[in-house]
């Protein structure tokens, strides 16, 4: 990836270098004061050899840091990682050469032996390479991690859109077919179904294009969805949704709750001939948000627990967005209830 200087959403190379090697006026003044204090102490102690060695070591560091900050400011979008490493190597070589010249000049002026030039040159270059090369290596690793995270999120978003595009036509077809039937036999229920369908589409369509949503919005989407399902299945489905008003504005990735609700309908309601209860609950657990979707249906039987495309996509999205700060659990309780539990950092969405 060293040949690409910029990927949408990732920090550009020049910005990463400016962050690593840049310094505020206050930081520059403090660094200069520390260097001057070291020189003054060596002078006061009469250690002329210390001054020569310190100057030789300091020269490539100063030239390298200043030069890299200048390279980042001048080249900007044209800069890539290969060029950055090449620039750093050239600057360190020049700085080590200047440091060697200073070392020999100072020792000659002080009447001291010049020492071995190769050792001084290697020492000044090696120390500067450690001081300036390690931050550059870390910046490049972080840059690559950003790129991989953005690419992973883009891939998961595309997979989510494909999954939703596969689900929506099936749901809409069944709902419209039920509405047509109810229009002839029960107009009042047909009107209710249309109202919930309109509410569902009003929430679902913007979410398919959004990167973020809220718990209140997603719970409303699930409420309309389950209301339509309940009208289609009559008294077989009972729904209970408990979302505190204080948590309605909590940030939540779009369509995650819908995936859990669809899973509960598919493996709970549609696989059991009798009555089924589906519940949605949300609560704050310290700094986390816990959202649970449960049903008392038969569960998913002998299938691999939670191995469907929708739940796999949900887990991968959580990992890409929150890392280890979020988790998803699918449990079959002793009471016979299947519980899908989503835990993620509690963050209030911006108004």
> Which range does the strand content fall in?
5-15%
Shape annotation: rod-shaped
Mean pLDDT: 79
How many helices? The count is 9
The secondary structure category is alpha+beta
> How is the biggest beta sheet arranged?
5 strands, mixed
Order of helices and strands: HHHHHHEHEEHEEHEE
What is the helix content? 55-70%
Which second-level CATH architecture of the largest domain applies?
2-Layer Sandwich
Describe the structure.
With 351 residues, the chain is of the alpha+beta class. The protein folds into two domains: 13-148, no CATH class; 186-345, Heat Shock Protein 90. Helix content is 64%, strand content 12%. It has nine helices and seven strands, in the order ααααααβαββαββαββ. The strands form two sheets. It has a five-stranded mixed sheet. The chain has a two-stranded antiparallel ribbon with strand order 1-3. Helix 5 packs across helix 9. The chain is rod-shaped, with a radius of gyration of 32 Å. Mean pLDDT is 79; it is low at 1-10 and 302-306.
Which key phrases capture this entry?
7 strands, 64% helix, rod-shaped, disordered N terminus, 351 residues, 12% strand, 5-stranded mixed sheet, alpha+beta, Heat Shock Protein 90, two-stranded antiparallel sheet
């Amino acid at each position: 990836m060293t040949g690409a200087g910029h990927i949408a959403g990732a920090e550009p190379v020049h910005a990463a270098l400016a962050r690593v090697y840049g310094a505020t006026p206050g930081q520059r003044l403090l660094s200069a004061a520390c260097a001057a204090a070291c020189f003054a102490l060596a002078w006061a102690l009469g250690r002329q050899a210390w001054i020569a060695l310190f100057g030789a070591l300091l020269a490539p560091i100063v030239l390298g840091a200043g030069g890299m900050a200048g390279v980042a400011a001048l080249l900007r979008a044209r800069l890539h990682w290969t060029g950055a490493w090449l620039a750093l190597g050239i600057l360190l070589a020049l700085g080590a050469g200047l440091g060697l010249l200073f070392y020999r000049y100072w020792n000659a002026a002080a009447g001291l032996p010049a020492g071995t030039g190769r050792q001084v040159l290697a020492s000044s270059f090696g120390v500067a390479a450690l001081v300036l090369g390690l931050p550059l290596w870390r910046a490049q690793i972080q840059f690559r991690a950003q790129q991989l995270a953005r690419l992973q999120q883009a891939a998961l978003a595309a997979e989510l859109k494909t999954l939703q595009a596969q689900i929506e036509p099936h749901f809409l077809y069944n709902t419209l077919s039920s509405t047509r039937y109810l229009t002839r036999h029960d107009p009042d229920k047909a009107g209710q179904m249309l109202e919930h369908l309109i509410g569902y589409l009003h929430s679902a369509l913007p979410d398919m294009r959004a990167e973020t949503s809220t718990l209140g919005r997603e719970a409303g989407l699930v409420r309309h969805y389950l209301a339509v399902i309940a009208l289609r299945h009559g008294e077989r489905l009972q729904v209970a949704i408990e979302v505190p008003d204080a948590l309605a504005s909590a940030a939540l990735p779009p369509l995650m709750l819908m995936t859990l609700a669809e899973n509960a309908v598919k493996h709970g309601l549609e696989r059991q001939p009798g009555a089924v209860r589906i519940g949605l609950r949300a609560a704050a657990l310290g700094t986390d948000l816990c959202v649970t979707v449960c049903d008392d249906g038969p569960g998913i039987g002998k299938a691999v627990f939670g191995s469907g495309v929708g739940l796999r996509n949900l887990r991968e999205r959580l990992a890409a967005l929150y890392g280890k700060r979020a988790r998803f659990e699918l449990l079959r309780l002793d009471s016979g209830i299947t519980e899908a539990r989503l835990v993620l950092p509690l963050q209030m969405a911006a108004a």
